[in-house]
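Thread: quick sanity check before group meeting

JM: Hey all, I'm pulling together slides for Thursday and realized we never actually wrote out the predicted structure for the chain we discussed last week. Dropping the sequence here so it's in one place. If anyone has concerns about the input, flag it before I start.
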Amino acid sequence: MRVKKFIVKSMPEAMIKIKKELGPDAVILNSKQIKTGGVFGLFKKKKIEVVAALDEVKRTMPERIRTENEGTTIQPKVRATSEQSLLKEIRQLQQMLTSNSFHSENDYPPAFEHIYSYLREQDVGNDIAKRIVDDMIERNKDEDAPETTIKDLLIATIEDHLSVNPGITFENKVIQFVGPTGVGKTTTLAKVAALSVLKHEKKIAFITTDTYRIAAIDQLKTYAKILNVPVKVAYSLTEYEEALQSFATYDLVFVDTAGRNFRDPKYIKELERMHHFHDRGIETYLVLSLTAKKNDMLLTYDQFQHLPIEKVIFTKLDETGSYGNILNISVGKNKPIAYITNGQNVPDDIITPNREVLSDLLVSGYGHA
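JM (edit): ok, ran it. Output follows.
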């Protein structure tokens, strides 16, 4: 019996190598997740160690039968000895498998370890990924459930964990959009405003306090012209209050705030000086880009978290295939998702999500890795 160990990135890669080196009759005896490479113990990569075997006695049997037919006799004693040797090898392999069975850092069964790895590859935080997988295991003790069942269980578990409150409530008059520079606040504001006008027939107005970028003012004025709504530019708190007063008879007032470096604490303080975040009748939405790295996303949220953020809006869905930050914010920060945008077109490229939409996104890559 030939036994060989393979170090691979995925099981499909293992199957290809096993078939090439041992042939189609080879069988997988064991698999486990390991970490390899790295420098001074750092930056190690996760891989899979697969042990496969080929029963060479069985493979050469046709030739032995042919030899016997040609008149060469194989003594029964020799054949029995070969079988005893093979049985001994099998027992040794069984002992090896017993002492070296599948083991991961989380002690998850293989199917659930695969789910955990998938969530981590999607940039889901470690604690959240473990929470979801632990919940899945509690719901279904069947380790050998087919993949479709496991996937359905994953979807159901994600949906139960998500915090979703789609759209704006229309209960408050002033809707403020805050967030770091480059996330698409102005375009997102225009999309939500367009939905309010075209779908809900609301009378709306625009105010911008983003006086740091001339382009931002011009962009909002362009959207205001398209929607045929008024817009005012406020350079100070006094002008902002006057603009709000001038739009007192409107159903909704959408406020575009300045986008600055989220790592600068002065930016948040300037926002607080310029806007009435804690007043009644005001809702504040945090706009974040799905293209952001997990750590940057969480740092950004933490900079804004002491403001009364009503909900989160994610942008740039069309620019990434990693959706883990949806869970990092919705579950990790317990903050509901209002909208997701997926392009530059106003008002078309915006999604008012529910749990089904978000869970479908989050598992869209599962089984295709």
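AS: nice. Residues 58-80, 96-104 have pLDDT under 50 and may be disordered. The first strand starts at residue 2 and ends at 8.
JM: adding both to the slides.
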